[in-house]
Amino acid sequence: MWLLKSPWSNPMKHLIPYLRDDQKAADYLRQLRWPDGVTCPRCGSDAVESRERCDNGLRRFNCAHCAARLGQQFAMFTDWTRSIFEESKLRPLEWLLVVGLWQLKLNATEIAAAADIQERTAQRCINLLDGGIYETYHLEPTRQLEHQVEADECYQSAGSKGLPREVERYDRAPRQRGIQLRGRATAETGRPPILGLVQRRDKANPDAPAAQVYLEVLENVRTATIKPIITAKVKGGAQFFTDEYSIYHFTQVDYDHRTVNHGAGEYARRDLDGTCVHCNTMEGLWSGLRNFLDRFKGISQRFLHLRVGRYEFLHNHGHLHWHQTFEAALRCIFSTPGDYLRRMAHQHRRMPLTLCYR
Length: 358
Ligand SMILES: [Zn+2]
Fold this sequence. Notes:
Elements: H1 2-5, H2 22-33, E1 48-53, E2 59-63, H3 64-70, E3 76-78, H4 92-103, H5 108-115, H6 119-138, E4 148-156, E5 179-181, E6 193-199, E7 212-217, H7 223-233, E8 239-243, E9 256-260, E10 268-270, E11 276-278, H8 280-294, H9 301-316, H10 322-334, H11 340-346, H12 353-356
Parallel strand pairs: 4-8, 8-9
Antiparallel strand pairs: 1-2, 2-3, 4-5, 4-6, 6-7, 10-11
Helix pairs in contact: 2-4, 4-6, 5-6, 6-9, 6-10
The chain binds zinc ion.
Zinc ion binds at residues 40, 42-43, 45, 63, 65-66.
C-alpha cells in the first residue's frame, strides 16, 4: 500500500505539464482559483482587464470597478492577491510541487528534500496549507454526518512548544508518546483527547464515497465539551454507535443510540433488526491517524489540530482520483478568508471551541 502511495510511483504525474515553468504553474493555479473566469478578490467584479505578468510568472489584473471606486487610474491585483499564498516568496512552480507533496502526507523534512527548499520554509508551507484546510473544510458548518455514525475518543501525546501555557511539569514522570486508547487525559496534562465521528460507508451503493469522518481535538472529554459538537455534526435520528463510556449517554434523546460493552469483552454484535453494533470503523481510523501522526516525530499542541485536519480531509477524499483530491484541496485553500494569515500569525494556540461553534 505504501509503495502505491510513494512519490516514486508518481501519482503526481498529472502535474507534469504544469511543472515546466512558473507561467504554466501560475496559469493552472489561476484556473483552479477562478474556474468561471477571473474576478476581483476585493470587490468580486468581473470587469477585470488582464495585464502583463510579474517576474515570478503571476498574472496582473486591473479592476475597473475598484479603480473607479478609489478614484485611481488603476487598481491592480495578481493571481494571489488575498489568498494564503500572497505573502509567500515561493514561486508558483514551487508551490505546485509543495501542494502535491503535502497531499502525499509527507513531513517537512521530506518535502524540503523533494522540492529543494529549506526545511523551515517547508514547515511554514505545511502550516499554511493545513491551516487553509482546517479553516474551510474542517470548520465548514454545513458538513454533517447521518444514517449510521460511530463515535469514539483517543488521546494523543503532544508537547507544549510554542504555547503560552506550561503543559510540561518538572515534577512529573516523562510523558508517554503516541496515541493511547482509553484513559482520562486532557490537553492540560499533555495528552489532548481527539473525538472521532464517522459515518459508515453505504455498502449497498458501489458509488458511495469513503466513510466520512469528523475529527476534533479537545481540551477534555466531558459531556459539556462534546455535546455541542455531536449535536452540530450528527443529524438527528441517526443511528449512533459508541462504547459504554458515560459521556455519550445524552445522545439517547436525539439519536438511536446503541452501545457495545468493551469492558465485558463485547466488540461487535448484530441486533434483532439486523443492525451491526460496533465501533470498528472508528478503531480502524485511529490506527490510520496514528500512522500519519507518527511521521511528524513529536507534535506540538499548537499544530495538532492542523495535522488532524489534514488527515480528516485526505481521508474523506480518499475514494477520489489523486488529481480530484488535489483540486478539491486547492479550492479550499483559495477560498480561505484573506485575514486568516494575520489571525494565524497572532494566534499562539488553537481557536477555542466556542468560537468554532458559535
Ligand atoms: Zn475590484
